[in-house]
Design goal:
Layout (H helix, E strand, L loop, with lengths): L5 H18 L2 E4 L8 E4 L5 E9 L9 E5 H14 L3 E7 L3 E6 L10 E5 L9 E8 L4 E2 L7
Parallel strand pairs: 3-5
Antiparallel strand pairs: 1-2, 2-3, 4-8, 5-6, 6-9, 7-8
């Protein structure tokens, strides 16, 4: 399990606020060890979306794809197909450019999946599979809410 820093939590809270404004919903964040980051809901508590939120220090379009941990993809995908509630992968890039994609639009059979890890941590266990999600699948959060 990976721990989140205070910076990660602060960034996710900021993205949640922007989603609330753009989609006119409430966002609740799950505790650190939950496989999902957050969910949106109505004032009466009905869940509208499952959320996976990532913040990147890149300019949107700098790369052809955005990587997503397969460990995060699977629970979001399973939640979406088993509940018929949209699972949404949300990415904030530099300049507060926030975009999202419905996880059901990510066909893992079509996109490259690699096993990667950080070499600067000197930990041979620090590796995981990631899926490369094409950037052109994402839409600005103000342009869609997948209801």
């Amino acid at each position: 399990m990976k721990l989140q820093t205070k910076t990660h939590e602060k960034n996710q809270e900021m993205v949640g606020k922007r989603i609330e404004e753009a989609w006119t919903v409430s966002v609740e964040h799950y505790p650190t060890f939950n496989p999902l980051d957050a969910y949106t809901h109505t004032p009466f508590g009905r869940i509208l979306h499952w959320l996976e939120i990532k913040c990147r220090d890149i300019v949107w379009g700098q790369y052809d794809d955005i990587f997503m941990s397969f460990e995060k993809f699977l629970p979001l995908y399973l939640a979406a197909i088993t509940t018929r509630i949209p699972g949404v992968f949300v990415v904030r890039c530099a300049g507060d450019d926030i975009r999202a994609v419905n996880v059901l639009e990510i066909d893992a059979r079509k996109y490259e999946i690699l096993n990667v890890g950080r070499k600067d941590r000197n930990n041979p266990l620090d590796s995981e599979p990631i899926i490369h999600v094409p950037s052109d699948l994402f839409v600005k959060i103000e342009d869609s809410m997948w209801l």
